[in-house]
Specification:
The structure holds three protein chains of three kinds. By secondary structure, chain A is α/β, with parallel strands linked by helices. Helix content of chain A is 66%, strand content 10%. In chain A, α7 runs antiparallel to α9, α7 packs antiparallel against α11 and α10 runs parallel beside α14. Classes of the chains: A alpha/beta, B alpha/beta, C alpha/beta.
């Protein structure tokens, strides 16, 4: 145990002495978050909107007026027939269609509740997300300033929002889970594989191998500092996302922590596996960048939704741990779902981890050739 | 033969790194056609001095001219007129002999035709012509070092700096290497060489011994031995670098 | 297995891809001796040392250390070996003290526990114990690496070219240290490309291109040398060398410090004949002596044989 603690201590010394890398590791995620967070948060003004009002009563007209008088929406046309809606979206005439059912006000009077339906073109997730927000706040505002004063029995106008073409509505909120997946992969897999190959390069691995040190101690000793570092990093991103950017966190924190640890384990075992193949830091770096970071960014569904990819890429994406972790975090954070909904993804991650670990253990050499 | 013309002139040359003085006020001259052995313990400041003389490092103060060019203002001209070879880095292992020569010839702006002709002449002379298209990595160390020396002289420089050129080389190849040095000198080149083999110090026309950033002794090997009343340059070296140790023995 | 044989190697072969790096190597190292492998870079010294310290497996042949098999019992062997690889494997970003205490800890030991072992060596660098290992000079790195290899009190020290790239003074100091360690009962196997260090070992193996040329005490190796050797000096060494090479009876002529070492093909060569030749060539102030060869002379003789 004494040996092990000394080993871990040494690893921490390496990490803290290399303050440049440390700076990049901790500086980069917030910067990325800021760039992505703000870059996608551009204002949308004068989004085209069409109105399909089958009621034409005073409340439906007032809601339409309220929408159009905001700076966000601009009326293109009134729709008189349901069959026109689809065509207009396809031609890109408008981004949003507001639908009022017949006898809107009467429905409200009778049942105390009426639904306004909004159809949003969500093919651009960022814009649709913004529009979603605008609509929600305009309706809420109308509810507060108007309906609440009129109503006697707590009438409710509820916006029913339907995303077309991209129903899951990938957006800025999706960025935080994505960044989590990326950082964890970067710190764990990349840094561990580099830390191990570095010892090979400087020749110190030779001395470690000749010593009675067990390979498992070498590996676990290497991995522990980076696990802690990665977790710390992940939580700083999470906190920044939640408190600065208002990303919702609906699910269980404990569950997320548990899943994150599993994903971390997968990434670390991947890093160890790389280092058993790679002889130099340069090779480890190249393999990690090309084999891990690019797919993690591009194929995991972090930036581009996997379901829109060509089939071969969709197939490949199944082998990327980040894809499953992304599904898990989004389900926990954004949808507030429990473990039963992400059991399969968790199992996939665990089996990946076991696979990598077995390969690494088979490949890890107690000798030099 | 060593002429009176001085091709390296160093006066009060100093290099500071912050508060640390790596090279402290050294002065010496090297004549044309001379083999000058530049000795010193690890960390005595040899490498820093060589870097200044080869135009890789700007001196802090003092004066230095190499091949007639000023080390402060004309480092690019110096680089063009000297050859340099070190034990640590000499040739690209993943290129062939011919490719390495082509590369160095190209760096010094020699014409393609000239490079081709000279390559054949050189390799024939070194009996390496059959290995023209072999990768450097496949050659024994001794061959590589000899080839590296030849490549360092390919652009016909006036002065060649050799930084521990024979480290780890077998004794026969080491002597063949010195044959090459003598031959280069007979063609009028000047050789500035560092080595850890003290017997090689005896092959030099003059040697200087650096201790703690200063030149502690400079003369011909035989005069140095006379001066310190010892049998070998190694003993001179030990006397200068570790006075206490020499007394103990 | 005889108890006093620390290392026992017989008929060992090792190749990488098509290159045979070690061929038919056999030798023994006795307990408490300093055994040196003398040979240039690329002779196979590093591969051989890695096989001895269980880092590599031979293609064929038997290797045992402390009477244990290097393949089966590598764990027990590793406990008792101190290894210093050719490149002074230290952590450049850790301080002198941190390096030493780390290497002690991987053997479950501490600096304090075995301080007496390294005291002589470590005291040279202890004033700089807070300095990063990367900022040390070659000689100091070498001392630190030796301290690190010693700190767990090994029975056998395997030192791969510990003096390469280190200045002559540090080299002399280093050999002094090895002698002290030997006196404390540690067996030492050391390799070096410097022929002059051979005489500092009790027994040596001359190794070149993967083959052992000879094994014995330095004195016995020299005694076996057959050719009569002349040491000749003159003002102009290089022209002397060239003249001697053109001498009809010349077998070898090599520069040797301030002299030329010269041997003849014929048995009955003598000073007078050579003097006559040199005078004929108008060489002035030359001096000829018959000398007994040193290890380097013998090495070259064996290499050219």
């Amino acid at each position: 145990m004494y040996t092990f603690i000394q080993f871990v201590k040494k690893e921490f010394l390496h990490i803290f002495r290399d303050y440049r890398t440390l700076l990049v590791l901790f500086g980069m995620p917030p910067v990325q978050l800021l760039i992505f967070g703000y870059a996608v948060r551009t204002e949308v003004n004068d989004a085209n909107i069409a109105i399909y009002d089958r009621s034409k009563d005073y409340i439906s007209c007032e809601i339409s007026q309220k929408l159009l008088s905001s700076q966000y929406f601009k009326l293109t046309n009134y729709i008189s027939n349901e069959s026109e809606i689809e065509a207009g979206f396809r031609q890109g005439k408008y981004k949003v269609v507001v639908c009022f059912a017949p006898e809107f006000s009467k429905q409200l009077e009778r049942t105390g509740n009426a639904d306004v339906q909004f159809l949003i073109d969500a093919s651009d997730p960022n814009i649709s997300n913004l529009l979603y927000g605008y609509i929600s706040s305009i309706i809420a505002d109308y509810q507060n300033t108007k309906i609440n004063k009129l109503s006697k029995a707590g009438w409710m106008v509820t916006p029913q929002i339907k995303m077309l073409y991209n129903p899951e509505m990938k957006s800025v909120y999706m960025f935080v889970p994505g960044l989590l997946a990326l950082i964890l992969m970067l710190v764990s897999a990349l840094m561990t594989s580099i830390a191990i190959t570095k010892e090979k390069e400087t020749g110190t691995m030779e001395v470690l191998l000749v010593s009675p040190l067990k390979p498992s101690i070498i590996i676990i000793g290497k991995v522990i500092p980076y696990t802690l570092l990665a977790l710390l990093n992940a939580f700083s991103v999470l906190a920044l996302g939640v408190y600065v950017f208002g990303v919702p966190f609906k699910g269980s924190f404990i569950l997320l922590l548990f899943e994150t640890l599993i994903y971390l384990g997968t990434a670390l075992s991947l890093g160890i596996m790389i280092s058993t193949f790679a002889k130099t830091q340069q090779v480890a770096l190249m393999v990690s960048l090309a084999g891990l970071l690019l797919p993690t960014t591009l194929l995991s569904g972090f930036i581009f939704p996997t379901e829109n990819m060509p089939l071969p890429l969709q197939f490949i994406s199944n082998f990327i741990p980040a894809k499953w972790y992304l599904i898990i975090t989004r389900n926990i954070m954004l949808k507030g779902l429990g473990f039963s909904y992400i059991r399969n993804e968790t199992l996939i991650l665990i089996s990946m981890m076991v696979f990598f670990l077995i390969v690494s253990m088979k490949k890890f050499k107690i000798r030099l050739d | 033969m060593i002429s009176d013309k001085k091709v390296i002139k160093v006066e009060n040359l100093t290099k500071r790194f912050g508060s640390f003085i790596a090279v402290n006020d050294i002065s010496f001259e090297v004549g044309e056609g001379e083999i000058f052995g530049f000795l010193g313990a690890n960390g005595a400041g040899k490498t820093t001095a060589i870097k200044m003389l080869t135009g890789l490092l700007l001196p802090s103060s003092g004066e230095a001219t190499v091949a007639g060019f000023d080390a402060f203002r004309q480092s690019e001209k110096i680089k063009k007129n000297i050859g340099y070879m070190s034990q640590r880095f000499s040739l690209y292992e993943d290129l062939t002999i011919a490719e390495n020569i082509r590369l160095y010839g190209g760096i010094y702006g020699l014409s393609n035709k000239h490079i081709k002709e000279q390559t054949n002449i050189l390799l024939t002379k070194m009996k390496l012509i059959d290995y023209k298209n072999s990768l450097i990595a496949s050659l024994p160390l001794g061959w590589r070092q000899k080839l590296a020396f030849a490549v360092a002289m390919f652009h016909d420089p006036k002065i060649v700096f050799l930084d521990e050129p024979t480290g780890g080389v077998d004794p026969i190849t080491r002597r063949q290497f010195w044959d090459m040095i003598y031959e280069a000198v007979s063609e009028g080149k000047t050789i500035f060489v560092t080595t850890h083999y003290m017997d090689e110090a005896e092959y030099c026309d003059r040697v200087s011994i650096m201790v703690d950033g200063k030149i502690a002794a400079i003369d011909t090997p035989s005069k140095l031995k006379q001066q310190f009343n010892v049998k070998s340059i190694n003993d001179v070296f030990v006397r200068l670098a570790r006075p206490n140790m020499a007394l103990n023995q | 297995m005889i108890a006093d044989k620390i290392v026992h190697v017989s008929n060992l072969n090792k190749s990488y891809k098509a290159v045979q790096v070690l061929s038919d190597i056999s030798f023994e190292v006795k307990e408490g001796e300093i055994f040196g492998f003398i040979g240039p870079d690329g002779a196979g010294k590093t591969s051989l040392f890695r096989i001895i310290n269980t880092l590599l497996l031979p293609d064929s042949g038997r290797v045992s250390v402390f009477g244990l098999d290097t393949k089966k019992d590598y764990k027990s062997i590793r406990q008792r070996i101190g290894y210093m690889p050719g490149r002074f494997s230290l952590y450049p970003d850790l301080s002198v003290e941190e390096n030493l205490s780390f290497f002690a800890s991987i053997f479950g030991s501490t600096i304090a526990k075995n301080y007496h072992l390294i005291k002589d060596i470590y005291s040279h660098i202890e004033p700089f114990k807070k300095r990063k290992a990367g900022a040390l000079s070659g000689g100091m790195k070498q001392k630190l690496a030796l301290s690190c290899a010693l700190i767990h009190k090994p029975d056998l020290l395997v030192l791969d070219e510990p003096t390469t790239g280190v200045d002559a003074v540090s080299r002399t100091e280093f050999w002094e240290m090895l002698k002290n360690l030997k006196n404390q009962g540690i067996t030492i196997i050391v390799s070096t490309p410097y022929m002059d260090e051979a005489s500092l070992c009790e027994r040596i193996a001359l190794i070149s291109q993967g083959k052992i040329l000879d094994i014995n005490t330095p004195e016995a190796i020299i005694a076996k040398s057959e050719s009569k050797l002349f040491s000749i000096t003159a003002e102009d060494k290089y022209s002397l060398l060239k003249l001697l090479r053109n001498y009809s009876d010349c077998k070898t002529a090599f520069l040797f410090g301030e002299n030329v070492h010269f041997s003849c093909r014929s048995e009955n060569a003598d000073k007078d004949k050579i003097s006559e030749y040199l005078r004929l060539k108008a060489v002035e102030n030359f001096e000829i002596n018959i000398i007994s060869p040193n290890i380097e002379d013998v090495f070259m003789e064996l290499m050219t044989r």
